Amino acid sequence: MFNIGLPELLIIGAIALIVFGPNKLPELAKALGRAMREFKKATDEVKESFEAETRDLEEIKSTITEENVLGDLAREISSLEEPSPETVTTGEVAPEAMAQTETSSAEEIVISPEEREVEEKKEEGSEGIKEGTPSHG
What we know:
Blueprint: H1 6-79, H2 95-100, H3 106-109, H4 113-132
């Protein structure tokens, strides 16, 4: 601790014996022992209270983290849409749905049956108009 060896300790003891006398020296040693014991007890209490506060903070941190994770999961789940009949069970888009649209976004590729009928009617109408128009040539 203080790097004091046996010769230094004997010199300190001899000086204390001369200064305080043989009658007071045991009382001083006893008081020094009590003071050291109280100091150690106080430091242990501070250490335990610090560790308890640290544990409480860790619990609060984990609770907040879990709430954030659960909140994020809830938002993700609520943002997911039910799969339409156009999607394959593996999550891939059916080939018919891909042929119906020109965009490459997975959300835009999936078409409801009503939308498909409307697009088919538009295509039939545009083909009829093309057939009825005279060609220039």
